[in-house]
Write a structure and sequence with these properties.
This protein has 408 residues and is α/β, with parallel strands linked by helices. The protein is 36% helix and 22% strand. It binds N-(iminomethyl)-L-glutamic acid and fe (iii) ion (FE).
Length: 408
């Protein structure tokens, strides 16, 4: 056999549903790679003979290999911070009160409009490095802190640039409909029209977005406005997804499901009709424990119903300055288990196989199997449950991205 690299002295949590056990585990495993692809994976004692003199062999020291982590919902590119609002909330103000008083998303919009491309790139680079050091190899980045053409384009361009300059793959989402722009406070329908007629065509012309998202909520866009926006994005050829049922139940999930959304995200207020609708459309349920935690939400997403209807559950950081200022995908694994009672295997599927599905890249990444891209991490752990169990000592050792060992 002629291979570009072989890994031995490893255990593998392949996350391949074709293998038994929640992790698709292969203990005392081996894996072979040619170019950017996995060409052999299985128990070490079944590894075909290969030329040991000409093949680089990597030893994993008995650690575990998982697919590279995928953070499928982030607002990574913003300027400033909202620590002052954190203090206000500690004194009793609610997230909605602050938003209605012109703070919240609009406060970050002000800071982000004022930031230069270079400043924004540098902020993003540092944050992306922090995530990469925890094993993230693919990330989704939303715009949504511009709410005007130039700044929305600026954020998406910087996101694309980050993807070009960093080994982490970046998928971009145009979220011009994150909040009603300050210029349109008294005419949100006119802002919806501006998104559809001015911003979306400009985003498409520069190929700046892979997907389109809306915040469907009583402090943002109504279901009617959301429907109009999602339809326009779909017609333009973008994947669609939705911030839905975070603070109330407006039926956004059903609407998004009826339009074939890849995912609906947050979902604390999702009911059984909504769960049925997303199950029927094959839409993923993205759960965001960081926002649940930081907003001290008490209403849990309907986890048991999601399990019952076999909806793929995604776990993501929702990293943003208002509701989840926590730049850690690993901590989300822990929170998914402690706060939402997911099993560690479900949580890991949420940042690998299911996250890939939510981004429409499940044919390439998220599972370790023959033919898949060689995106994986080596961890200094004795069982994959440790990734969700403990936090703070970071057991990450190495990432391999598209067959390349990353030095960081
Ligand atoms: O996903 N819910 C809407 N958007 C973000 C929060 C954005 C912000 O507060 O800046 C979220 O929670
Ligand atoms: Fe979000």
């Amino acid at each position: 056999m002629e291979w570009d690299q072989v890994w031995i002295d490893i255990n593998i949590a392949s996350m391949d549903p074709a293998l038994s056990g929640g992790y698709g585990e292969i203990t005392d495993a081996a894996m072979a790679i040619i170019n950017d692809k996995i060409v052999w994976i299985g128990p070490r004692d079944q590894l075909p003979a290969f030329d040991v003199l000409s093949t680089p062999v990597y030893r994993g020291g008995g650690g575990w290999i998982t697919p590279g982590l995928i953070d499928a919902h982030t607002h990574l590119l913003f300027a400033g911070n909202r620590a002052n609002e954190f203090e206000m909330r500690l004194q009793g103000a609610s997230y909605q009160d602050i938003a209605k008083a012109g703070g919240g998303i609009l406060a970050t919009v002000k800071a982000t409009r004022a930031a230069s491309d270079a400043d924004l790139f540098e902020l993003g680079r540092k944050r992306l490095n922090a995530l990469a050091k925890e094993g993230v190899t693919t990330i989704e980045i939303k715009s949504g802190y511009g709410l005007e053409l130039d700044t929305e384009l600026k954020i998406l361009r910087v996101a694309r640039e980050l993807g070009k300059h960093h080994h982490v793959d970046v998928k971009t989402t145009f979220l011009g409909a994150h909040a009603v722009a300050p210029e349109y406070q008294h005419d949100s329908d006119a802002y919806v029209d501006a998104i559809i007629n001015e911003m979306l065509p400009a985003v498409m012309a520069e190929n700046l977005a892979d997907a389109f998202d809306v915040f469907c909520e009583n402090i943002a866009f109504s279901p009617e406005q959301t429907a109009k926006l999602l339809r326009a994005a779909k017609t333009a050829g973008l994947d669609i997804k939705l911030h839905a049922e975070q603070l109330s139940n407006l039926g956004g999930s059903q609407l998004a499901a009826s339009l074939g959304a890849k995912s609906v995200d947050h979902l604390e207020y999702l009911d059984e009709a909504g769960v049925k609708a997303i199950a029927a459309s094959g839409t993923c349920a993205t759960l965001l424990p960081g926002a649940f935690y930081f907003l001290r939400e008490t209403k849990l997403p309907p986890i048991e119903l999601l399990r019952q209807y076999q909806v793929p559950m995604v776990i993501a950081s929702d990293y943003n300055p208002g509701s989840s200022p926590i730049c850690s995908t690993l901590l989300m694994l822990n929170m998914a288990c402690t706060l939402f009672r997911l099993t560690p295997a479900e949580a890991l599927a949420g940042v690998t196989r299911h996250a890939a599905k939510a981004l429409g890249i499940e044919d390439k990444v998220g599972v370790l199997a023959v033919g898949m891209q060689a995106d994986f991490c080596l961890w200094d752990i004795t069982h994959p449950a440790e990734l969700a169990y403990s936090y703070g000592t970071n057991p990450f050792k190495h990432a391999v991205k598209a067959g390349k060992l990353i030095h960081q």
